[in-house]
Amino acid sequence: MAQAALTAEKASQGNNVLDPVTIEIMWTRVVSIVDEAARVIARTAFSTLSNDANDFACVLTDVRGQSLAQNTSGIPSFIATLPATVRHMLAEFPIGEMQPGDVFITNDPWMGTGHLPDVCLVKPIFHKGGVVAFAATTSHVPDIGGVVRSIAPREIYEEGLRIPPTLFVRNGEGDPMLTKLIRANVRTPDQTLGDIWAQVAALEVMDNRMLTLVRDYDVDSLDGFADEIFTRSEKAMRDAIRRVPKGEFTYLMHTDGLEEHFELHVKLTIRDDEILVDYAGTSPQQPCAINCPLTYTYAMTAYAIRSALLPELPNNEGMFRPIKISVPEKSLLNPIFPVAVGARAATGHYVPALVFGALFQALPERVIAAPGSPQWCVTLTGHQHGERYACVLFFAGGLGARASLDGVSCLSWPSNISMIPVEVAERVAPVLFKHKRLLPGSGGKGRYRGGLGQEALIELYAEGGASVFFMTERTKIPAPGLAGGEPGALGELLINGQPVDSRAPHYVKQGTQLLIRTPGGGGYGEAQARSHEAIEKDRRAGYI
Amino acid sequence: MNAIADEAIYSFGIDIGGTFTDVILHRGSDGQSISTKVLTTHLDPREGAIIGVRQLLEQWPIPPRQVGRVVHATTLFTNALIERKGVPTALVTTAGFADSLEIGTERKFDLYDINIEKPAPLVPRELRFEVEERLNARGEVVTALSQETLAAVVARLVEQRIESVAVVFLHSYLNPVHERLAAEYIRKHAPGVHVTTSYDVAPEIREYERTSTTTACAFVKPLAEGYLRGLQNNLRELNIGAPMFLMLSNGGLTHLEEVLKNPIQMLESGPAAGALSSAFFGKLDGYPDLLGFDMGGTTAKLCLVEQGAPMLAYAFEAGRTKRFMEGSGLPIKISTVELIEIGAGGGSIARANSLGLLNVGPDSAGSEPGPVCYGRGGDQPTVTDANLQLGYLNPDFFAGGSMQIDAPLAGHAIGRLADQLGLSLVKAASGIHILVSEAMASAARVHIAEHGRDPRHYSLLLTGGGGPVHGYCVGRKLGVKRLICPPSPGVASAWGLLVAPVKIDRVRTLQTTVQDGDLQAVEQSFLELEQEARGVVQESAVQHQKTFVKRLAEGRYKGQGFSLIVPVPDAALGNEQGRQALIEAFENEYRRKFSRAPSNLKIELVAIRLSVHTEDLIEEGLQFPSRSGALAAVKQVRKAWFEETGGYVDTTVYNRDLLGSGDTFNGPALVEDAGSTLVVGPNATCSVTAHGSIIIELH
């Protein structure tokens, strides 16, 4: 008998219940399928965000658009967003009209991941004439048109090309009209389309591997398997929540804001086996791009709760069922169309620290004091020797201290973006780094010290000068500590020694020096309680 | 000269691993060999090695001068890095960048762990010093090397009694001038301090990875020098005057002096020997494309072999701190046999997780207390306990009969787990076996797919204690058609030491476009690297031995973050023909890996890599005698469980030592030798080759 793969016992015949071994084996396979697809994107993507920063995700869902697995390295921004995208597609395109080989596309912020550069693709997986699952991917493309990395836009129309849910590939061919339209609207047509096709390759990998799986296990539907995963994961999350002290816990965080500070409010209600996270009282949406759509707010909320309660379990639909959020419409954390949302992370990255602030009151050992994030980012563009250059530099602040550990210095959190090596940055842009080092004293004092931020001094030598755009936060309000820990140091941004408005674009001359000081993380516990050994060690290393 | 003598008759291979030291003695005239396994002596690993050598010299009393060479591999340096047990080491960097080593990539290797820590730098902040100097991204001097700041640093090195120092300056991969000057100055003014420059260790762009590699090298260098020279002296005391060669991570050999310049090249020497050995046994029987699967007590390793050579990677991580997670170790930029390591082995513990599902590993019962069946206090069932329960392992012939084990105890432990999960005993035991095999197959699938290959075109070659036990299940899952089990699979990896060619790798970072760049300059760089590498190879090689040069180009489509490495076509790069051939090489590799048409963007070269190597030193295997047929090797019949039969069936057990070449038999079957048991399910036919390997064809 010629049979390539294993002769598994029939996994899900009729109403047979799957056993704990078969479920685990199939689950291992499904997770390895999304991880394999992730490698395809990481290796072919043109965007440095995709390949250095893992700013992409791969997900498999069941036919109802419920997530079976997300790639292990997928960053928190994408928790639960792709399954929602699949459901939007299902609402737009009836499943009965889908054909094998179809790929659907959208980058609508409210249906996708919260901003336009993340292009999302969805592919139905057909088996025996019907859809058994969906493969979905999203990836931050190098350019989507509109204003470059700035919070200036007031409405989504200024931020680039918006692609509503659309059929992109049928019978193996990309839609020529849509392709033409995309090419005409972005600065890097080859790279942007290259990234979209890298995603198509990843979708095909998931399609092929899932078909092998359903054949190996001789199942016509994945519903039984999916329900087992969801039910068990949901139960695990509910069990974890049940162990948290009941009650209502509130926390307020002020953030830099614009002319005035913003207020982010949270009320965590833990009752029996559910968590309700309510953001009532949060500042209203703004006429600039720092609004954070609901999908991103949910992802960041779920990230914090999963990290605190169930860090080991692979992401799937079931584990997030007991986590409900409520966000007032037209607020910073639930803005409505057509406001601008391009820099959603500048607000959204505060959310996990906000949730931790409330959760601390119930589970002091399972949270992190506020970090020196949102992620800092400096974009330089201009011309040198007649060629256009664009360089995006990332700088992490310090992580907050933990209940029994100092914060980690210079660590991207909640996002997960690599720094661009100095040697690489100096190759792609006319800059020379004078230094890039830890910033002593920037970690918030406490029994456990906050992680240090960093200081970088960059000199620009482009003859024609450059346009510089910044994404900075915590330059006015520092990262607060927990349990009596002190806040981390403020971030600072100086051009030629002078503090500047980091929200505005700057046009600078040759020889200009940019000084970047990222914020430190908050401390944990009273500073007097810090051990002498720890202080001595800090002194020896020059951390304080 | 250190050259291997032509008249070399005997060769020694010494492989010091974490638990065991394997020593093998090979006779060139007839291909016979003997080997021994002794416990690694952690306090002074040379001791165990010498015990092994003595044992073999007693078994084969030969004049020591007839030993033509000794080849050595060791995990000693990896352990020194993991345990942070090196000498007091300092780092000297460009002013402003002493923290690069600590800042690292700024990324988390685990997204959800609130107690995450970065891997601790090998050099603490107070021992990282800065000097004034600077090159730009074109390798031009922007700020001259300041003698004063350097002098101040050297004073600190002396004051702090530093034994080893790493020197890493920005952009030195393009121009080593300042690193060389600084090294010279330090050697002169702080005599006795070992100096390591980044240009000599890893001349590649990206300061964090280069600093990490150079620092790791400096950290182990004095240790390596003392240890390796000491071992050579120990051998001399036994009147073995033959030169000692060292196995490198790239699967090649070189002489002692070359290794002492850059001992970090030896980090993966043991696994590299294992990979070479897999390649060797595959080639002997005409199977040059294979996946090596080595499974031990706590981990398993996979290695892809193509056309008889293990695939190489140009970076890896040493000492991953968290469950083999990418990013949790120290980045090391050297060429190394590409291995996928999976945190599961015979000692991995099975349990019910919080979801009520069966989980295996990643924690292991290790050798103490070990699996439940060892009867040393372990009470959580392991993979080995499950394999015993399934009838795969022989309770009366455990570790070749050298170990008393308690099978009922193991059965009870699995029974408790089965009750917890609501499963039958046999379902729990088979579940453990299958789940571990699935983890191996999943890792293999992702790895093979990353290279754009199809697992069905490969044979699976089984080594280690556990490879032959799980190979059948893993092979079925992968869809391979053939398994290969070499003779003595438990000690097969030491063979890699005997067959390894002399091989030297070099790399140079550059930046030019293939379509319109100056490829003449690239050609020139290749020639320079070749001359340098040839020089080192000739110091080690047998005279008149044929050498081969392999040129690789690393590049990417402009704007892409990830690069491809392709073999450079034979034509010289300087002319138009060479240029076209190189473009085609990139396009073909791109198509193969990503199964879509390459972009019409320009291709940017980022580095060139060159390797000079000799032929394999042994190309002939032992001719395995034919004996009196498989029937004569039948030891017993016992019940073993197979998925295809849906339960336990009578299974013939063969004594591997009594099987001869040409023997054939069908599955289900078990083949026992002192180091391992080969498990063959019902849908397979087996035959013993002329070289003693068992080929299992899966149907």
Topology:
The complex is a heterodimer of chains A (544) and B (699).
Chain A: H1 20-44, H2 48-51, E1 56-61, E2 67-70, H3 81-92, E3 103-106, E4 118-127, E5 130-140, E6 166-170, E7 173-174, H4 176-185, H5 189-216, H6 223-242, E8 247-255, E9 262-271, E10 274-278, H7 294-309, H8 317-320, E11 323-326, H9 345-348, H10 351-359, E12 376-384, E13 387-395, H11 422-428, E14 431-438, E15 454-460, E16 466-471, E17 492-495, E18 498-499, E19 506-508, E20 513-517, H12 532-541
Parallel strand pairs in A: 10-11
Antiparallel strand pairs in A: 1-2, 1-5, 3-4, 3-6, 4-5, 6-7, 8-9, 9-10, 12-13, 12-16, 14-15, 15-20, 16-19, 17-18, 17-20
Helix pairs in contact in A: 1-5, 4-5, 7-10
Chain B: E1 10-16, E2 20-27, E3 33-39, H1 45-59, E4 67-74, H2 76-82, E5 89-94, H3 100-103, E6 128-131, E7 134-135, E8 141-143, H4 147-159, E9 164-168, H5 177-189, E10 194-197, H6 198-201, H7 207-237, E11 244-247, E12 253-255, H8 256-261, H9 269-284, E13 290-295, E14 300-306, E15 309-310, E16 312-313, E17 316-318, E18 330-332, E19 336-337, E20 339-342, E21 348-352, E22 358-364, H10 383-389, H11 407-421, H12 425-450, E23 459-463, H13 467-478, E24 482-485, H14 495-499, E25 503-513, H15 519-540, E26 547-557, E27 564-567, H16 576-594, E28 603-614, E29 634-642, E30 647-655, E31 664-666, E32 669-672, E33 677-680, E34 684-688, E35 694-698
Parallel strand pairs in B: 1-4, 4-11, 5-6, 5-9, 9-10, 13-23, 23-24, 30-32
Antiparallel strand pairs in B: 1-2, 2-3, 7-8, 11-12, 13-14, 14-15, 14-20, 16-19, 17-18, 21-22, 24-35, 25-28, 26-27, 26-28, 29-30, 31-34, 32-33, 34-35
